[in-house]
Design a protein that fits this description.
alpha/beta; 7 helices; 6-stranded mixed sheet; 4-stranded antiparallel sheet; about 240 residues; single chain
């Protein structure tokens, strides 16, 4: 008997997005269909202004479509209100951005704990222990007390990754997650993300870096608000040093 196909975790159907400023309208997405299954790693590539970031913002519930439907983990995000979306994001989405977006007055440990603090998750002791475990997983157990200004760019991005995983999200979304890093730090960051994917986290990331995109098993290319190619390949993951 054939194994039943997995239901997709992410479904964008007929999605359009138009941004308006006064009388000026810009069509960022022009009617796209996209399905992503649980456990996949997908790179989204394309030139600046093609609609890449708009796609991941829709998947994360940060933005809403002008037309079409966005369903993620069984929830119609295009029908949800802002308060419900905020609760849904905490339970489902972890995000890593190009410019780290750490709180400058908080230590690495406190930045990692922040999502747990906001969700009032567990006791203070439990939050500290979990944040410490996450920092250890990204190789920063000895930097937990440092402020962001005392960390290198690669270290700050690893703190951002630990923070993104604090609520154990089903989906990790990266918007140019290695775009502000040197090549060595970028390779290390990708290895950490690949390890999370291998452990079951669905990973979707936007990148201009064709070398980084080539490491993903699936590459979706966007141009002028349309998906122009969707390629699956065998990932050539770099071995751990």
């Amino acid at each position: 008997m054939a194994t039943p196909a997995r239901a997709p975790l992410v479904v964008l159907a007929g999605v359009e997005k138009t941004y308006r400023s006064g009388r000026v309208a810009f069509r960022a997405l022009r009617g796209i269909d996209l399905e992503i299954c649980a456990g996949e790693m997908v790179a989204i590539v394309g030139p600046s202004g093609s609609g890449k970031t708009t796609i991941v913002n829709l998947i994360a519930g940060i933005d809403g479509p002008s037309a079409g439907t966005v369903t993620v983990n069984g929830t119609r995000l295009d029908l949800a209100g802002q308060e419900d979306l905020a609760i849904w994001r905490r339970a489902n989405i972890g995000m890593v951005f190009q410019f780290f977006q750490l709180m400058p007055t908080l230590s690495a440990l406190d930045n990692t704990m922040l999502p747990m603090e906001l969700a009032r998750q567990g006791s203070r002791r439990t939050r500290v222990e979990q944040a410490g475990t996450l920092l250890s997983a990204v190789g920063l157990s000895n930097r937990a007390g440092r402020l962001p200004v005392e960390l290198s760019g690669g270290e700050q991005q690893r703190v951002a990754l630990a923070r993104a995983m604090a609520d154990r999200p089903r989906i990790l979304i990266g918007d140019e997650p290695t775009g502000n890093l040197d090549s060595e730090s970028a390779r290390e960051m990708f290895r950490l993300i690949a390890d999370l994917n291998a452990a079951g986290t669905t990973v979707i990331f936007v990148t201009h870096d064709q070398g980084l995109a080539a490491l993903a098993p699936r590459v979706v290319t966007v141009r002028d608000g349309l998906i122009v190619s969707d390629t699956r390949r065998v990932a050539h993951r770099e071995p751990n040093p």
